[in-house]
Amino acid sequence: MEYRSPCPVASALDVFGDRWTLVVLRTIFAGRRRYGELLQMPEKIATNVLADRLALLEREGLVAARLYQNNPPRHEYALTRKGADLLPVLQAMARWSVEHIPGRWEPPDWFTNSSPADFLDGAEPPTRQRRR
């Protein structure tokens, strides 16, 4: 990726500063890791935009695609250490939004009280574990 400047804020925004990338990451943190699950997010992302953002996240090393079905090939997306390390950023944005934008809902406890390590190796969000 080519960055527009050496400024750390501008460089971070070059990676995830569009209107969808952090929302896709939030949804992956919430345990939705397959393309069809990600399409179900309440913000109604278009299929081409989702495909583009997942490719960006993978290219930037924030998620890793894992094949879960061979025919046809289907992938799920797991957070890498680099991607999981964005959790405090999302938590700070959520806190700011709740404090400064009226009518926002409080994030769930699993989101507020988690650490990046809780999401590595494809782990489910704490207290949102799927039954296997």
Class by SSE composition = mainly alpha
Percent in helix: 40-55%
Q: What's the main sheet like?
A: 2 strands, antiparallel
- Number of E-type strands: 2
Uncertain stretches: none
Oligomer: single chain
Supply Rg. Answer: 15 Å
Mean pLDDT: 92
Q: Can you describe this structure?
A:
The protein is mainly alpha-helical. Helices cover 44% and strands 10% of the residues. It has a two-stranded antiparallel sheet. It is globular. The model has no long low-confidence stretch (mean pLDDT 92).
Could you name the key traits of this structure?
132 residues, mainly alpha, two-stranded antiparallel sheet, 7 helices, globular
Question: Could you give a short description of this structure?
Answer:
With 132 residues, this protein is mainly alpha-helical.
Summarize the helices and strands and which ones pair or pack:
Elements (H helix, E strand, L loop, with lengths): L7 H9 L4 H9 L5 H5 L7 H13 L3 E7 L4 E6 L1 H4 L2 H14 L8 H4 L20
Antiparallel strand pairs: 1-2
